[in-house]
Amino acid sequence: MQALTEAFRFFTKKTQFCAIGSHKPNIGHTVTSAGIAGVCKVLLAMKYQQIPPTINIEEVNPQIDFQGSPFFVNRELVAWKSRDGSPRRAGISSFSLNGTNCHVIIEEPPLQRSAVDQQRKPYYFFPLSAKTKTACLQKVRDMVEWLDKEGGAYSIEDISYTLVQGRSHFSVRSAVVARDIDELKQALREIISNDRSEYDMAKEEGAELFLQQYGQWLLSGLLETTTLLDQQEYKEKLQNLANVYRKGYMLDWSQLFQKGRYYRVPLPTYPFLRESYWITEISRDEENKVLLHNASIPSSATDPGCASSQESRNISVDRLREALKHRVCDLLKVPLEHIDTEKELSEYGFDSITFIAFANRLNQIYQLDLTPAHFYEYTTLARLAQHLHEHYHTILAPHFAPTIATQKCVDEGLAPARPLRASQPTPMVGVSRAPGAIPIAIIGMSGAFPLAADVQSLWHNLLEGKDCISEIPPTRWDWRSYYGNPATPHLNKTNVKWAGIMEEVEQFDPLFFGISPREAEQMDPQQRLLMMHVWKAIEDAGYEASSLSGTNTALFVGTTSSGYNERVSRAHMAIEGYSATGQTPSVGPNRMSYFLNLHGPSEAIETACSSSLVAIQRGVSAIESGQCGIAIVGGVNTLISPDLHISYSKAGMLSEDGLCKAFSAQANGYVRSEGVGMLVLKRLSDAEQAGDHIYGVIIGSAENHGGRATSLTAPNPRAQADLLLAAYHKANIDPRTITYIEAHGTGTPLGDPIEINGLKTAFSELAQTIGEGPLPQESCGIGSVKSNIGHLELAAGVAGVIKVLLQLQHKKLVKSLHCAQINPYIQLEATPFYIMQENREWQALQDHAGNPLPRRAGISSFGFGGANAHVLLEEYVPGKPLFPSTPLPPALI
């Protein structure tokens, strides 16, 4: 209350004019959702123009001087009146026990009015749909209830508009036509009383084109001015349209609302089924059974897409779709009539195994060079057919050419990939930075990795081509107790005993940070490592930590719970007041912000494997937006519990032999590893002004999500390409000047080729808009630090950045290990890319005048939940000194 009063006193000396309250006496403290609960309360209060009471107050805290403050405690329901015609406004505060604070000011919206002067329609269309009949009927009931309570406040046309344009349309459908809200309620009640909802799970055979055209004709008729149609005729056309909708067909319903202005209405949302999925007793979970579809390939088959003697050599996309449908039918034994070319391939049961079989089959039949990675980019048969039509038309044409007799279209063996025609390299040119891009200097770093206590030890291991993976030590868990076939039902088993292990992860100096040894014992090791390496990174930047005290320095760190709480529980340690702070991931960065007295944003970032690179992107954004002057960013990962190890093993994600073979033909999964890395970021101009040591410069960064891919954990190459496009457009950098990519490169048979495809797409599209000439071949090396130290998961991105910074420092590119034979699904012919299979000097490019260009590299990091990040680094080339050099007197050290 004191802080609020001080803030208000900057603007007014009025007393007791602002009500204050809290929702927590009503529903308690919802912790991580407490802030949004407060926002919801305020929005509801604005909607009903009433301020609800704060309950359970018998006596106001005598330590709070409400009489002299702008506030009074609202203890009864009162009307929320606006003053002087101003909109109602409210502030919502949310404070974390770790010191992270937030305040939001909300203002009521202006009144939304339907266009009363527009011509009112005689009748309106109201579609309702769901994925099941039960849910659809519930949606109808919810709608009736809403109309009874809220319907009078909204116009009939806005309700219709929202149902048509503001809702997804599923296969189980109901639709009614009504002129007003009373008639709408009556029609919906009839559906409920009859317990019916019309639906068709599949469109009527042979009727699709007719109904689509009929529906479009009806829509066109309704677009005529209503004066040309009497009310009954208008109603009949709309009812016929409702019948088309019930049959499952989609039309361009937006045509119904071309004229006039409409508003979206807060109608009832989807009625999800309320089935219970709750573990009711402590037991070992039964292993999920995975069905692998039969991937056998018949030695020969007759292609239904092969042309008859009457068919033209000019193949169409429709014919390709039909041929692909037959291939899926043969491979997965899905009835042909159930295959919809617009549906995602994953909905038919495709997985990595059957994608391989599908690629092999299409390659055998049509002599193509498809890889399974294509199906992660072209995720429906329709998209795949379009891609084949655009890029393989010449190759496919003979297979659809006229034939005298029935032609056998499947040949034995896999046809070799056809290399594309190479283009000639052209001289490189520099590109000026985009006006909005702000170069960010990296002025400090610290890290520890498997068999490397610091970044210099890491560089030595990289240069020597050292594999830093070892058996999991007993200090983590006894791998022998869990070793076995992961497919064994009812048992928590894994056949992976390997990991990248940090030395001395249990060690800490608690008193240095003002923490008692007893509390330190219950702190997650990730918090301890975070604190130590943040401090080291600050010192590496040449700053005294206390010099940051009171500044808006930010802290963004990829971190999560490592499972250390399970170890604490197994040790039967008493639960103390500090137990919660020791195990809560957000406390890690918050604790360090507290210790250093930093006032900028302080956040734990958790986007799985992309966490630390997303943290770097957040730091860049915070500096660019002015939220902070310095950002300390990075990530930390420790392996304390076997649970995730077992889960990832059962999912087939881990390498059984302990080798992370990125880009290799023998790739069989990744190796989990520990590590920590922290960087200190600052505007380049500020760093140069301060005389800071600069390791490298971030000239572009971006993050996105893969959206709907073939599965939750499957990568999306199009989204990965878009990510790079965003980062490079932000930097306005010619892709011809990028000479190294530190790839995500986890060593999975399909993940690596998909990533390479995304790179190829991005560079190809960038080259068309930035720079001149074709992309030079074999000009950009690709490597992965995971082949040396494994996959650091939450700290993987910052590990890649540190590797690139070391390569810039030493002007060397180091090889990627375990990649003697490149994955056959990785096709690098006629591309700028090559795999780093040996150490080499990192040569600087030159512009047309022969001047050296700064070395540039990109770093990618992709989370297995779809969160992606990319950072573009540039070698720092010092400009002219700001001040002339003068002799200095002897210095005292």
Count helical runs: 27
Stated plainly, the CATH topology of the largest domain is called Peroxisomal Thiolase, Chain A, domain 1
- Helix-and-strand structural type: alpha/beta
Q: Kindly state the mean pLDDT as a whole number?
A: 87
**What is the CATH architecture annotation of the largest domain?**
3-Layer(aba) Sandwich
Spans of at least 5 consecutive residues whose pLDDT stays below 50 are 199-206, 283-312, 403-432
Neighbour order of strands in the largest sheet: 13-12-14-15-9-16-23-22-17-18-20
Q: Taking Cα atoms only, what radius of gyration do you get, to the nearest Å?
A: 32 Å
Helix content: 25-40%
CATH homologous superfamily label of the largest domain: Thiolase/Chalcone synthase
Provide the number of structural domains: 4
First-to-last CA distance: 49 Å
Overview of the molecule:
32% of the residues lie in helices and 13% in strands. The chain has 27 helices and 23 strands. Helix 9 packs across helix 10. It is globular.
Provide key terms for this protein.
11-stranded mixed β-sheet, 4 domains, Non-ribosomal Peptide Synthetase Peptidyl Carrier Protein, Chain A, Peroxisomal Thiolase, Chain A, domain 1, Alpha-Beta Plaits, 893 residues, alpha/beta, 27 helices
Topology of helices and strands:
Blueprint lengths: L1 H7 L9 E3 L3 H4 L6 H15 L1 E2 L19 E3 L4 E2 L9 E7 L5 E7 L16 E7 L2 H17 L6 H10 L6 E7 L2 H14 L13 H15 L8 H16 L70 H16 L19 H15 L7 H4 L3 H11 L1 H4 L43 E9 L6 H9 L6 E2 L7 H4 L15 E2 L17 H5 L3 H16 L13 E5 L5 H7 L8 H5 L3 H10 L5 E4 L5 H15 L4 E8 L5 H8 L24 E9 H7 L5 E10 L11 H15 L8 E3 L8 H19 L10 E4 L2 H4 L6 H15 L1 E2 L19 E3 L4 E2 L14 E7 L4 E8 L19
Parallel strand pairs: 1-3, 12-13, 12-14, 17-18, 17-22, 18-20
Antiparallel strand pairs: 2-4, 5-6, 7-8, 9-15, 9-16, 10-11, 14-15, 16-23, 19-21, 22-23
